Amino acid sequence: MTRTWYKTLGALLWFAPVVIAVRYWQVWDRLPMRVASHFDAAGRANGWMTREGSLYFDLIFLAFLAGVFSVVLLVVQRKYGLGKVQWALLVFLHAELWTFVYLLNSTVDYNLNGTAIAILPLLIVSVLGGAVIVALVLGEKRGRAFCATEVLAEEVHSGKRLGAFLLGAAAVLVATALAVPNSTARLALGLSAAITGAAYAMAWDGFHYYFTRHGVEVRTLRFRLKSIPVLEIKNYEIQPWNPVGGYGIRGLGNRKAYVWGKSGVRVEMYDGEVFLGHNDPQRIVHDLNVIKRYQQS
């Protein structure tokens, strides 16, 4: 029943193109033959197309988003099952899509009445929704904390090269935000700079692996991301990391990866797996062997 509701609510994403089509149908005779379709940072129109072209563009754009979001929901559900994160993602993608509908409808209102384009709602939904998803991903299935006084070894895996790139990108975003006149665009760029800066801090600090008698703790910026009990470790081996999989914190549920480079150790557990990235994965294997011996003694 739960899966049925999930799929049904996911299918409702495809009503977005229908809603915007009905809106165009309602005001078709009142729209000018040449409508404003693109706007600068100050909200001034700087691009136009025929009303037919505008309708087709909006329909294709919304259908594209609905298709991408549907695929994302399907892949996440099949790979990780259903949980709080998956349901939150469903709600977030709905909010994002319908906010785009609201934005496109505001362009219709602009052409009818000259009212301002509503960009701020999209910004608010994107930031708040994204923050909720990140918080849920970071907080899910972390396990219990281990005793800090029983640390046998610590390894650090950072991405300082990528961090330097992210810092440069954040600086560019800040400079651009200071240059644009529109307050909404400035806010969007400022938030993007803050998010990029946070990613820089995490990459620069890296992932800290604390090996204790009870298992392994993964932390970044002093925040505990995951506890891996030694009794739940089934097997582990050195493996390369495919850059296509991305960097940082990857995966959901019982399949997680913490990686900034090209190599690491894949830890197979009885209820999932964790990939611990490291430039010298032999050190991770050595430390895992040590805590395994403690557990067996």
Describe the protein.
- With 297 residues, the protein is an alpha+beta fold.
- The protein folds into three domains: 2-139, no CATH class; 143-157 and 206-297, PH-domain like (Roll), CATH 2.30.29; 159-203.
- It is 55% helix and 23% strand.
- The protein contains eight helices and eleven strands.
- The strands form three sheets. The chain has a five-stranded mixed β-sheet with strand order 7-10-11-9-8, with helices on one face. It has a four-stranded antiparallel β-sheet with strand order 3-4-5-6.
- Helix 2 (15-27) runs antiparallel to helix 3 (51-80), helix 3 (51-80) runs antiparallel to helix 4 and helix 4 packs antiparallel against helix 5.
- The two termini are 47 Å apart.
- 23% of the residues are buried.
| Beta-strand residue fraction | 15-25%
Largest sheet: 5 strands, mixed
Number of strands: 11
What is the ordering of alpha helices and beta strands?
HHEEHHHEHHEEEEEEEEH
Percentage of residues in helical conformation = 40-55%
Distance between the termini: 47 Å
Q: Rg from C-alpha positions?
A: 24 Å
Structural class: alpha+beta
Q: Return residue spans where pLDDT drops below 50 for at least 5 consecutive residues.
A: none
Helix tally equals 8
Output mean pLDDT. 88
Q: What's the overall geometry?
A: elongated
Arrangement of strands in the largest sheet: 7-10-11-9-8
What is the total number of structural domains? 3
Short description:
The protein has 297 residues and is α+β, with helices and mostly antiparallel strands.
